[in-house]
Design a protein that fits this description.
The protein is an alpha+beta fold. The protein contains five helices and seven strands; from the N terminus they run αβββαββββααα. 42% of the residues lie in helices and 34% in strands. Strands 4, 5, 6 and 7 form a four-stranded antiparallel β-sheet that branches. A hairpin with a 2-residue loop joins strand 5 (70-79) and strand 6 (82-87). The radius of gyration is 24 Å and the shape is elongated.
Amino acid sequence: MALAARQAMEPFAERVCRGNARTADDLYRFGYRVGETGTVVAAIEVPARLLEEAISSNLTSSCRLTPDGNLISESSFEYGNASAAMSIAPMPLDQLIRATLAPQNLHMEEATVSNLRTMLQRLEEATSVVRETLARYVQDEESK
């Protein structure tokens, strides 16, 4: 143990699956290990089912659109005194639309012509709102 104490320690979290298929016996292991060797120094195992239930019942997800057209997904988790928040890297709105309209995604979503027409209508309405807002901003700037 004295040797491990002098080496760099790192926290870890991993899923431990018993057997080939996911079962109720699966665990999540959290702890510290020696960075160079991977030797576990301290760990605690929590049944996956309990952890997943706690997370799913206390998880909040949201998305927001920035003024420059980036979509940001955010998730937060609170349980007792513990909390965590995570934000996914911004994705440009046009990139999200391209990904959504990729043939394999349209096939998986079983998209219909009606669905695509509805999307187009909503995007055109959104574009109109942006144009109106931009025109007001330009007008405000010119009047200053």
